[in-house]
Amino acid sequence: EHWELNQHFDYRILLKLKEDLEKIKAKKGTALNCGKGVLEELKPLATLEDEGLTLKEIVERVEKDLLEFADDETVAINVASTEPTPEFDPEYHATLEGFERAIEEDRRDKVTASMLYAYVSLKNGIPFANFTPSVSSSIPALKELAERVGVPHAGNDGKTGETLVKTTLAPMFAYRNLKVLGWMGYNILGDLDGKVLAHEQNKRSKIVSKDKVVGKILGYYPYTITEINYFPSLQDNKTAFDFIHFQGFLGTKMKFYFIWDAIDAIVAAPLVLDIARFLLLAKKKGQKGVVKELAFFFKSPMDTDEYNTHRQFEILKKWFEALVSS
Amino acid sequence: EHWELNQHFDYRILLKLKEDLEKIKAKKGTALNCGKGVLEELKPLATLEDEGLTLKEIVERVEKDLLEFADDETVAINVASTEPTPEFDPEYHATLEGFERAIEEDRRDKVTASMLYAYVSLKNGIPFANFTPSVSSSIPALKELAERVGVPHAGNDGKTGETLVKTTLAPMFAYRNLKVLGWMGYNILGDLDGKVLAHEQNKRSKIVSKDKVVGKILGYYPYTITEINYFPSLQDNKTAFDFIHFQGFLGTKMKFYFIWDAIDAIVAAPLVLDIARFLLLAKKKGQKGVVKELAFFFKSPMDTDEYNTHRQFEILKKWFEALVSS
Amino acid sequence: EHWELNQHFDYRILLKLKEDLEKIKAKKGTALNCGKGVLEELKPLATLEDEGLTLKEIVERVEKDLLEFADDETVAINVASTEPTPEFDPEYHATLEGFERAIEEDRRDKVTASMLYAYVSLKNGIPFANFTPSVSSSIPALKELAERVGVPHAGNDGKTGETLVKTTLAPMFAYRNLKVLGWMGYNILGDLDGKVLAHEQNKRSKIVSKDKVVGKILGYYPYTITEINYFPSLQDNKTAFDFIHFQGFLGTKMKFYFIWDAIDAIVAAPLVLDIARFLLLAKKKGQKGVVKELAFFFKSPMDTDEYNTHRQFEILKKWFEALVSS
Amino acid sequence: EHWELNQHFDYRILLKLKEDLEKIKAKKGTALNCGKGVLEELKPLATLEDEGLTLKEIVERVEKDLLEFADDETVAINVASTEPTPEFDPEYHATLEGFERAIEEDRRDKVTASMLYAYVSLKNGIPFANFTPSVSSSIPALKELAERVGVPHAGNDGKTGETLVKTTLAPMFAYRNLKVLGWMGYNILGDLDGKVLAHEQNKRSKIVSKDKVVGKILGYYPYTITEINYFPSLQDNKTAFDFIHFQGFLGTKMKFYFIWDAIDAIVAAPLVLDIARFLLLAKKKGQKGVVKELAFFFKSPMDTDEYNTHRQFEILKKWFEALVSS
Fold first, then answer.
1. In this complex, which of B182, B186, B233 lies closest to C233 when CB atoms are compared?
2. pLDDT digits 0-9 by tens, B210-243
3. Are A133 and A299 in contact (CB under 8 A)?
4. B162-263: CATH class
5. Which of B280, D7, D163, D319 could form a disulfide with D293 if both were Cys (CB 3.0 to 4.6 A apart)?
6. Is A255 on the interface with D (CB under 8 A)?
7. Do A10 and B251 touch (CB under 8 A)?
8. Gap between the Cα atoms of A262 and A264, Å rounded
């Protein structure tokens, strides 16, 4: 029992939900190209590809399972562990036609699980969000699909903890013309995510996503260190240590430190709910393609260069107000 | 030599400025109602009131000294130590007529040094800014004066360190609906300011100024602790320790800590220069009265309830762009 | 239910102990001269003195209640809230005769609850420890009593958190001849203890106890700040922020920060158990009077100037080994 | 000029020493098997091996240079950058005969610069200390040499910063039976040492030296993370961030954080001086071989399992007092 280990919320909440939780049945899915991190840390992991299915058959199974469950209010959100980033292949990733050909030709080396789930959702008019740094719906092929079908999607990588603080604080240094000389961010976490990220291949995608935000906001790229390490006794607790070295008037160097001591799942869960609600609203209002106004929720927002949390919030508010009154 | 103790910037910068610095001659001024902190820590302190001058004579002397020096480009900025907050007296503080009557009647119990300097500046068309939590130009009487003379002014209390970080971070908790349960801010500093603030009377004004910003931004007033203590070995170094206790999804409590390790004078100096430039521009463009768009620079901005650093920056930018192109 | 608020240990432990816990019945006691902090924060507080009893009658009632309960293995430990420190009065505090005269004469202004409990325990041959900064058994009168009756006692003020770290770290600076320029310690806590200590009178005793240890270890008294503040949302959580400014070779200043984020009751409870065991052993081995070798457990150990945690541990070990093999 | 960049002490100290410093002339030496870190970061680096000298010729040159300079009071201390750890080869490292055969046979693959300097010093009766994690005089061959010649030596790896704190604090958790669940130590530094340690090969030796101390003191090996990263803007400043997760009564988990913000050279220099003085005294008093009582100064002390800073200090004091009075 996962709760036993953490007890980060009241067990009586769990008791009340027991019946409902027990009714949820997970179906067998795919973990195609999810990297060593996922395959080793989650085993035994029974997947559709282990059954010997072709890509096409996998898509059909996932589609069948999804449609049995889905209704008009359904939104799909990828909260699986981080996949390694596959190399972009114009032949199969650039166009919807190419992507569907990859499925036809059973090119498993070109397709990851997060792409498949995005594909099945969007194809069936189900709004989709990618809460992870995996590639998923961000390839041109799937953006094309969303436009064609007329369904909204958003991503990538939920901005829950250290990066949220980074993108809130970094603007301050820019506004005040305090030059950031270096920014160090050390993250330790004890959950399954931490275990998966301990694998170099999977970690890489995450670090790239966390690392670039400071430079995007400042307009120049200071020296940065971004580390993620597994720390088992923390369990669902995630702690980040950041150190910012900055330079002010007359070249004087000064220091800023922060410690973020939070529970990743607890800060992530309400974002997932909010994203679902916003995407559903967008769908109802007829929006399609990337909803870049949801950048507020993501570390690597699609189709925008706005990383400043404050501006993202203003954009979200304006979008929401316009949408509601439309 | 003050630099000897701190050495927080290169001594060669000082050598280059030596000649210019030596030309600056300070005149004897007033420290009326500046509180025990100022009187005890800065002694021997020779003031105009010690010479037995009346309020009217003090005003005349300060005016004479100022006009000898000032030209069209002069801006006056109050960077003196924090005064205790006097009780508001409608008779003498509410109208310009009342304030001038206080001077005529030599009501020294009603007037503080920071009011006098603001009065003399504004009366002579010199833009004025109050970089301290002292009352200064924020009483209705002096606001009226600024409007009448047609000169811009701004204040109060330069937002240089911990409060800058507070007003940058607090919005994040609001945006994400993370409830702040408590916010503790401990400040230690070793300069003269620290010595003066060690006096209860003077400290009070400062704490009020630092303390309210979090509630203003969040829309509710969490439990707060704000302490300022003198720590001699730090000299010009100012360090703030903040702890934020917050509550997220399912009532889970989480923690955030930060340490700001900076040099107060170094972060303040460029703000003083910027405020001077902006006020001069405002004057040239014909603005008068409180320039509330300069809220970005102040802990307790006059005539606005906008404490969010990010919004303040947007407001400043818009104001500046409109002004320049006007 | 206190546990509800904190949940800092597994509720199933509590379930197992439920029956035993319910059997424990507290008797009405005394809160004589416990200060405003105790009287206001714990009310409604029914005490023996409220019943109009004289000192002598209070002593008799406490004694009766204690003897009903006690056996040969009983040890009494004061874990009540901190009392204000009464002024030492040679007439009533210096000798056992004087102290007993105070009781006879019903001099309630001279006697505190912690003295009364110590008196009753020691008089009846029950080893006593004072886990608080209250005066208790440390007055000469009660030390005399312990010697006469032949019973061991120990105190004062359990060294549980920040002071434990202080007395562990401070020796390092001494060994390496790094001069401590200043040591700041800020404590925040949310339990009843915090509430009581928010009262100036009660806080004073605690701060004196925490503050002097650094100087005792270093051999000189650096600038120190010791603050304790109530922070309700922390509940049983106690957090300390320490900053140490130190100077090394060639006068270079350097910095050390630590954050102690612990649960006071959880770090205190095993000490209380250990002290009880050690005192019982001491009694069985015929020791009487202050057991200064238990200094390891206390912030203000009686009859010793050894504040270095490491030396205290070595002394405890030697004492224990000698005692066991005696 | 190195001082220009750091200015961590008063430039007037430097002016006073200018003449003396200019008289010191460094001779060309060896960097044999010092690893990529040293070779790449210090280039252009002119070494004796670049001149095409054999091992034997290198030894002769170093010996000649040393003897020209040395007198009766000379002590040699290795403060060079960390070498990668060579594999132990019994044939050449286990006995003095083997080591000298390696020199004869010009087996450059078996010998590192730090061994050569130790060899030359000890052979000539010059006390030697290894202030680095390099192997140096710790191989049996050189220990044998020291015993034979009758000269004292000590090592390894100066305990200057984070490890000093670790070995001061870890005993506290042991004394109080608080179980350390995990200990994370992140080090960032901006000097040449940091640059060299950014090279994986060189870093490895250092991490092993830093990492094991906690387990040695606790008696069990908790989960540890030890990272060292280069952070250029810090220059000579070295900052360590440590997080200790520990478990107390009833299984409750608690947290401790510390930040060490110091100047490595400044905390190291006086240790180097003290080691030199102690070794000289040891020599004068006729001690030979490893002086394990100097463990206080080292991260990986030779021939002892005592890592507790406090015990090491007691041992040093006793040794010194006995030696002086012998």
1. B182
2. 778 999 999 999 999 988 899 999 988 999 999 9
3. yes
4. alpha beta
5. D319
6. yes
7. yes
8. 6
